[in-house]
Amino acid sequence: MVKSLTDTTTLHNGVKMPWFGLGVFKVEEGQEVVDSVKYALKAGYRSIDTAAVYGNEEGVGQALKEANVAREDLFITTKVWNADQGYESTLEAFETSINKLGLEYIDLYLIHWPVEGKYKETWKALEKLYKDGRVRAIGVSNFHVHHLQDLLEGAEIKPMVNQVEYHPCLSQNELRSFCKAQEIQLEAWSPLMQGELLDNEVLEEIAKKHNKSVAQVILRWDLQTEVVTIPKSVKEQRIIQNADIFDFELSQDDMSKIEALNEDRRVGPDPDNFDF
């Protein structure tokens, strides 16, 4: 059972990844991202998730320097963007990202989306970075089961993580089972469905029972379904609140009620149908 903000899951290569972290999607480069990362680190977070396309890697790097947390205690994720996919271009994109972050190595490097005809070459570049010790773990984002099956056919190294849209209205049951069988750790982006779930009656009732907020109930559900989660916020109070989920447990009944909210409904693009 996940008991604290520093608890980790062990990836299939033995690397330990925190169950809980801060996402910085749509957080502005400059003071906003520097502050939100520093608030999180001060609150005890150790995992920060960014991406080249977010345009805020430099700010994340600055916050990491200023925060003075030992590098080995941090878990930093970034991602290669679609336009940079392909073997050589991925290696170049990685250099750009690591330089902006000001780090010697990245903890987790992900393929951001399954760009058709490109992601296998991109994966070869990630395997090289992994073998060269530039990254501690490699993975993918927004991959459906069929994308993973296709990738696994020619991969030397299995992805360690698949980061996908995941929340009570999109509980990804088939993908979850597949990843579990393959020892690929599932990770949630948009766990709160961009705020759409915060006034859901079922969740409100469960929250009231535990004396918690709806957001806290959803984030606790993520952990109890064994999915790593990285809620985003720029407000210090919210960052602290989001992490206040280690002093209660959802019952089997609570879990079933949340599970019943699934509608296979996305707020983000479908990985089978995106044009960027």
Automatic annotation (TrEMBL):
GO MF annotation: an example: oxidoreductase activity, acting on the CH-OH group of donors, NAD or NADP as acceptor
Pfam family membership, one: Aldo_ket_red
Positions marked as site (Lowers pKa of active site Tyr): 79
Domain of life: Bacteria
Residues annotated as domain NADP-dependent oxidoreductase: 31-263
Amino acids binding substrate: 112
UniProt xrefs under InterPro entries: AKR (IPR020471), AKR5G (IPR044500), Aldo/ket_reductase_CS (IPR018170), NAD(P)_OxRdtase_dom_sf (IPR036812), NADP_OxRdtase_dom (IPR023210)
UniProt keyword terms in alphabetical order: NADP, Oxidoreductase
PROSITE patterns xrefs: ALDOKETO_REDUCTASE_1, ALDOKETO_REDUCTASE_2, ALDOKETO_REDUCTASE_3
Active site: 54
PANTHER family: 2,5-DIKETO-D-GLUCONIC ACID REDUCTASE, NADP-DEPENDENT OXIDOREDUCTASE DOMAIN-CONTAINING PROTEIN
UniProt similarity note: Belongs to the aldo/keto reductase family.
Protein name from the UniProt record: Glyoxal reductase
Originating organism: Priestia koreensis
